[in-house]
Design brief:
With 124 residues, the chain is of the alpha+beta class. The protein has 2 domains: 1-91, 2-Layer Sandwich (Double Stranded RNA Binding Domain); 94-124. Helices cover 53% and strands 13% of the residues. The protein has 4 helices and 3 strands. It has a 3-stranded antiparallel beta sheet, with helices on one face. The longest helix is centred in the last third of the chain and has 27 residues, at 97-123.
Length: 124
């Protein structure tokens, strides 16, 4: 996998992704990449072109598919970033930003539920 096609993405984002890949020790040669036809909203053009990206990482048996944007290069970058997130969840969950975000949302929801229970008791 090469990084030459990421011209629409800022260099800072590409460098940050490269740093995460190097920190986790991911071998980019092991990533299998396919471009498949998309589907869903977006009209005929989305359904005709192969702009959906499918990335496979066999050592951890991970598969990521991305079709958020209309451009293939943006979908490649987003899919690679999601794959790195998934690999980080499996390899080192203590440093995973995604896991920190999930726990932060859980805490916020539990605080919200607790406040609602307290309010409901006070109304009786």
């Amino acid at each position: 996998m090469n990084f030459t096609e990421f011209s629409e993405i800022t260099q800072q984002k590409v460098d940050a992704l490269k740093a995460r890949i190097a920190r986790l020790g991911i071998d980019l040669r092991l990533i299998e990449e396919q471009f498949v036809k998309g589907g869903g909203k977006g009209g005929q053009k989305i359904n005709k072109t192969a702009n959906s990206v499918l990335l496979k990482y066999p050592p951890l048996s991970l598969i990521v598919r991305c079709q958020r944007e209309r451009k293939r290069s943006l979908n490649r970058f987003i899919a690679l970033r999601e794959l790195v997130d998934e690999i980080e969840l499996k390899i080192s969950p203590e440093t995973s930003e995604k896991l920190k975000e999930i726990s932060r949302l859980r805490k916020r929801k539990s605080n919200h539920r607790r406040k609602n229970r307290i309010r409901a008791r006070g109304r009786c």
